[in-house]
């Protein structure tokens, strides 16, 4: 038969002292990190949407180079 322990050394949550200052610091850091991630995501989307790449392609046998441009809307995965 198992014996039950009646004298627990773990304090209930109501008796544990809380430090409100550390809780406030953690919430400010969390808010700052969320704002930082949001701002960097917006910047990445703006760079992707407004970017344009142009490459010169040489035609074999003819000394002519043709420019070919790539835009955001040419890639259906990003649209």
TrEMBL record:
A GO cellular component annotation in the UniProt record: plasma membrane
Keywords carried by this UniProt record: Cell membrane, Membrane, Transmembrane, Transmembrane helix
Domain Casparian strip membrane protein: start-end pairs: 25-79
Transmembrane segments: 31-49
Subcellular location: Cell membrane
Principal place of residence: membrane
Pfam families in UniProt: CASP_dom
Record's bilayer topology term: Multi-pass membrane protein
Region listing for Disordered, in residue ranges: 1-21
Database matches in InterPro entries: CASP_dom
Subunit structure: Homodimer and heterodimers.
Family, similarity comment: Belongs to the Casparian strip membrane proteins (CASP) family.
Name assigned to this protein: CASP-like protein
